[in-house]
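Bumping with the actual sequence this time:
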Amino acid sequence: MKSRNSVRYQKLSNDDGFVDAQFIKPEPKVPWRAICLAIGLFTVGTILLVIGSLLFTGHFDVKYADRTYPMLILGSIMFIPGFYHVRLAYYAWKGYRGYSFEDIPDFD
């Protein structure tokens, strides 16, 4: 049996192995192409919805009545995601809590 004097002890380190720099989150990149696409979808969708609404209410000539529902449907399909992503980009730009540019999908 070994005596107590032959056992080598080492001092425990006070360092937990983490560096403060590893917890710093880098600033997210702004997805400019996705934001431009969202603005385009929002704008064209709004225009199509307005024209479709004017066709539906009869402010345009009756000969264009067959284009009413396609304009309303396409306008809705373009307006909804465009508005959603423009709103996300605006809230992230203003710095509202819970919104970040990372929430917007990028094309990379």
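The tokens above came from a reply further down the thread. The longest helix spans residues 68-94.
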